[in-house]
User: Fold these one by one.
Assistant:
Number 1:
Amino acid sequence: MMFKWLKRYMPRSLYGRALLILLLPVLTLQLVISISFIQRHFEGVTRQMTSTVLLELEYLTDEVAKARDDVALQVAVARIGAALELEVVMPAPPAPRDDGRLFYDLSGRAVIDALGEGLSHLRAIELIDNDQVIVWLEVPQGVMQVGFPRQRVSASNPHQLIVLIVVLGALLTFISSVFLRNQLRPIKRMSAAATAFGKGRTVPFSPTGAIEVRAAGMAFIDMRARIERQTQQRTLMLSGVSHDLRTPLTRLKLGLSMLDAEEAAPLEGDVDEMQRLIDGFLDFVRGDAGDDLEAVDIVDLVTEVVADFGRSGQAVTLRDVHGTEALDGPVQVRPMAIRRAMQNLVGNGLRYGRAVEVRLMIGERSLRITVEDDGPGIAPENRDEALRPFTRLDPSRNQDRGSGVGLGLAIVADIARAHGGMLRLGESAPLGGLKADLVLAR
Ligand SMILES: Nc1ncnc2c1ncn2[C@@H]1O[C@H](COP(=O)(O)OP(=O)(O)OP(=O)(O)O)[C@@H](O)[C@H]1O
Ligand SMILES: [Mg+2]
């Protein structure tokens, strides 16, 4: 596009853009008015007014020319000067070489032009300080200097109109910016509510503002309610199913214990497996419905989880806590969920590797908990797959470690999403195994 470069100079916020849309026509209007109207109007007025003064000056020069001697001359000068309110000096002080005016004196040029055309015996004109006009005229007796107020030849200062327009423009801009701000506030509030919901927080929000904005707000509330309802239903249904399966399983186990031990052993193994699956299922379901947001000291929480593993003799170390200076007090998270997510990640690391390292990075807008191990890791092409529920990769390597349900990483990913974040898998540089980044929004 031709105007692509213009985009870079466009304000980025809606407020700035709306203000620009409002201001541009006003500014253009002011510019056009100032240039065409002021110029033409004031020059016209100036010429008209000047012609009146011209007649008076012609009369003065005629009368002075008629004077026979010096006394008559002085009498004529005094009489006419007083009557017409002109300051006449005769003989005159020396005239300047060029006509003079201030450079910003717009109507001054018109005054000089009009006087120059109308006066036949003109020697020079000088405009002083915008309020005094002085002309040098040639008469038979020599040169005469005549002074009169500027108001008599040009309408009062045209700058005043410009100042007025600018002040009015500023006032209009101010008023409209106040209105604009009020119109944009509902949009900002909705955006904040949507952002919070994306991070798993439901903040109170009631739609206000113009019809369209209100409609969008209503739609957002409906959508939010539906998503919440769906999550609740899913949780209820899954936990109901899992729970109901437990009773018959327990009965089955009881029945098996009555049988011959040798025959029952493989069956008991199957039942145990089913039990584990159901427990995993329940865990998965509880993932994001488990607990509410709480203000917690994230450093304490992470340290605690690592210490718990350490106490049971596992090789888990907290390597690094980075960016505590970006922390100003507790952060809002679901502590149980974070605990479970870390337990899943560290548990995986211990199951598929031997040693696990944990790092905590605190940023302005996010938290990152990194769990690394020295196991075989997950090949890049299998990482997406590993995050899906019920997937166990490469069953051969899992066998001797006791097979899992395949829900661990899916639960962690769910928890990350409920915190407005994500779970990223990669390769650990220091240990060579899997690196799991649990990123959470603050
Ligand atoms: N740290 C790791 N190193 C290597 N492979 C891993 C690691 N973590 C997970 N995997 C692979 O990803 C698969 C999915 O992991 P996930 O935690 O979801 O399930 P799981 O550990 O098999 O079962 P559980 O539900 O008991 O956690 C695992 O079966 C394993 O093959
Ligand atoms: Mg696991």
Note: Residues 29 and 237 are 66 Å apart (CA to CA).
Number 2:
Amino acid sequence: MSFSLRPHHKFRKVEDISPEFLRRKGVELLILDVDNTIAPYKTLTLEPAVLEWARSIKDAGVRLFIVSNNKGQRPEVFSKLLDISFIKRAGKPSPRGVREALSASGVEARRAALVGDQIYTDTIAGALAGVRVILVEPIKFTNIFLAIRYFFELPFRRARESED
Ligand SMILES: [Mg+2]
């Protein structure tokens, strides 16, 4: 897939990404960002709606894999809750963590997608690794810097493809 700062698809939250949508796009592996994508910063639990969504994705035969820049315990805590693998300190926008997840899963880049809430880390890492990029809205702005960064992302937050 060609490189772009714009995501292929955009949803408000991860729970809006349906198993049917992923099947239509031929996605076998969905790589998850953690912070502000599946949980707000600092929490150590997942909302029931997110757990239920993850189960529905796995039930549909799509594998999940956490690739997070987080250096703390959250990637591991959430990977245990979801019973999936994880990579932390991924260094996005470097594509390294995404590529590691692909090779650990044995899935080709064109059969994988990454979902995250940021342009300058998630979208770039996904684009450099050649996977489909799905952008969601950040769950919560916990400080002014997140809001400022979001402002500078706005020119790129439009999706390139329609949802069908
Ligand atoms: Mg994030």
Note: The pocket of magnesium ion is lined by residues 33, 35-37, 116-118 (CB under 6 Å).
Number 3:
Amino acid sequence: MTPEPGRMTETWGNCQPIAAGERFAFVCAGCGDCCRARRDLVLSGYDLYRIARRLSLSPRIVAGAFCKSYVAPQSCLPTLRLTPDPKTGNCRFFEGSACAIHAARPLACALYPLGQSIDTVTAQTAYFAQLPLCGASAGAGQTLQDYLQNSGVQERAGADARWAMVCTQISAQLLAAGGAEHPHFAAAVKRIERALYYDYALGDEFYPQFQQNIAALQPILDKLLA
Ligand code: SF4
Ligand code: SF4
């Protein structure tokens, strides 16, 4: 399993897996440290869609205003990363001492201080704690299940697992076709970016649109990368 994008990259080696019913002692102290110096916050299409809905702006406009778009070197996938405030280095949604988009915060933020990895064959998800845990001690603590429920991670788990699986499949196809060496690589990346991030109507639910986008994308990719 590979760690999913998020804030776990710096300390992933020290992370400890947590079982569903296992308790861990954590209460957010509201210090805001996880919103400072966040340079590794990669967004999924669902993350972008939720922020776009929260701001009543199209996904493309949100990406243009708040994100850096690039092709990830290992996967060859188009990727979006939230860019920090150039003056403070903090996340640009960190206002005062709170998140201005709290209800629509990205998965990595909702999970923190946990990290997640998804088996892209079985869709099985594992969770890890970044140690030492930040925040205040919670006495007997809470179970992983309760934490995922209360942070809104549980209700989006299906979409996040599907996202990881689809991205893995598309990446494999790109790499098998020779990646950036393929003559139609740039066109393919552009089309993938649309399907993953941009072609979403905010008045409609994300997941059915995602499924439709991927179904429409596949024959185009097959042709482009043949
Ligand atoms: S999106 Fe919100 S929770 Fe996430 S880093 Fe930015 S301010 Fe913090
Ligand atoms: S999750 Fe941790 S680092 Fe972030 S505000 Fe809460 S206590 Fe602070």
Note: The mean pLDDT is 89.
Number 4:
Amino acid sequence: MRAAVGAFLVAVGCTIPCLAEEPGFRPPTAYPPGPLGEMVAKGEQIFTDTPGEAGLYARSALSCESCHLDRGRDSQSSPMWAAVPMYPQYLGRNRRVITLGQRIQDCFRYSMNGAAPDLGSNVLTALESYLFWLSRGAAIGAKTPSRGYPLLSDPELDPNPDRGRKVFVEKCALCHGHDGQGVKRAGRYVFPPLWGPLSYNWGAGMAKVENAGRFIKANMPFGLGGGLTDQDAWDVAAFIDSRPRPQDPRFTGDVAETMGKYHRDGDYYGRVVDGVLLGASP
Ligand code: HEC
Ligand code: HEC
């Protein structure tokens, strides 16, 4: 993926600075020997090309790497090596203690808008092996500053989709397309869709404006992370997260009821923006 993106960036006249890793922690580079190494390599392929390698479980055109950059190693985009040592843990959203495997299942349900592969299935075992290997040497149970996406200060003005549309046109459309539907080359998305039927669904973490703002501020435009003002990051996040996207799998059959149960704040589900009732698409 980075090679394809790099070639595109050179074509449009920019270069990619090195993607960030945690000072002091280096995920390994050489695969372990034998069958475990094969499983790790398989997991890495699934992580970087999820539709191609685990298409049965993913209806979106995204890969894990679309949001966890540099194969899940980049310290600015919720790195996998900072997550793994923290599981099992209690998660408020699930209202129970979940394992790493169950956390990955949720990514399939929401971010990949798909179906969760069974615990113990090849896909899940490969991903768990890959994530575990990336985390070798990290201290179990020790929270690092790189966990999750970097924090973003509160916006001075309420996040606004109309202001965000201007940021999108100027700084994002070049890669993600004017319609936000991404760009495909040789059958693979080099630039992933930001909304619409092939993007993440309403239950995904990225559908919350704050999460998207944090990811965008730190990482977008790709290769130029940190370049937007905080306000622009909030506004453009509000813009992309107020476009239609696939239904929340927890849909009760009624948009208002689903909104009341799962979307009381932090996102645009159930609201009318530009004349469209969000959450009404299948
Ligand atoms: C659309 C963007 C997106 C995609 C695609 C995506 N994730 Fe995530 N992921 C997130 C966000 C956002 C969070 C933080 C979620 C939250 O706070 O609810 C997250 C959290 C996680 C976590 C927990 C991190 C922690 O520190 O506890 C793991 C593990 C994870 N993702 C793995 C994956 C895997 C594996 C895939 C591919 C099957 C994937 N993700 C695909 C956006 C994404
Ligand atoms: C130079 C090209 C480029 C530009 C400009 C760019 N992006 Fe991206 N964006 C990417 C690539 C490439 C990825 C996926 C990274 C990967 O797979 O390694 C991505 C991923 C994303 C994602 C997570 C995946 C998804 O589809 O939801 C979001 C959200 C996003 N970009 C938003 C933005 C926003 C907002 C802007 C403008 C401020 C922007 N991008 C500008 C190339 C770009």
Note: The radius of gyration is 18 Å.
